[in-house]
């Protein structure tokens, strides 16, 4: 599963960390950005910790490439998402989630919770591996 946003420092990092936490190793998760930042936003790490998700679940920022998209079964764009390459045979979803960059902590918590609701819905839609 691939989460894509502009800087790969906020939304995609939140989504990847939350999914990795909830899926407990049953899903391979990767975030990427069209213009990756040097590091995850500190406020994003903080709201993950508050939710009981180790910030270590967040991955380092990486660029969005055709190869990264080809390695994913499901590609989820967040925010604008228009610059994501389209690869045949992939399932594409778009989650219109606000950007946490520069937002107050209360807003970032709301963004985290909105992404978490999407994650729950997504996991419920996947075939069971049990």
Would you kindly provide a written description of the structure presented here, covering whatever features stand out?
37% of the residues lie in helices and 14% in strands. The protein has helices at residues 11-23, 42-50, 66-70, 105-125, and strands at residues 2-5, 30-33, 74-78, 91-95. Strands 2-1-3-4 form a four-stranded parallel beta sheet, covered by helices on one side. Helix 2 (42-50) packs across helix 4 (105-125). The longest helix has 21 residues, at 105-125. By secondary structure, the protein is α/β, with parallel strands linked by helices.
Which characteristics define this entry?
4-stranded parallel sheet; 4 strands; alpha/beta
- How do the SSEs run, as a string of H and E? EHEHHEEH
Q: Which strand order do you get reading across the main beta sheet?
A: 2-1-3-4
Overall pLDDT level? 87
DSSP, total strands: 4
Largest sheet: 4 strands, parallel
What's the gist of this structure?
This protein has 130 residues and is α/β, with parallel strands linked by helices.
Helix/strand layout:
Elements: E1 2-5, H1 11-23, E2 30-33, H2 42-50, H3 66-70, E3 74-78, E4 91-95, H4 105-125
Parallel strand pairs: 1-2, 1-3, 3-4
Helix pairs in contact: 1-4, 2-4
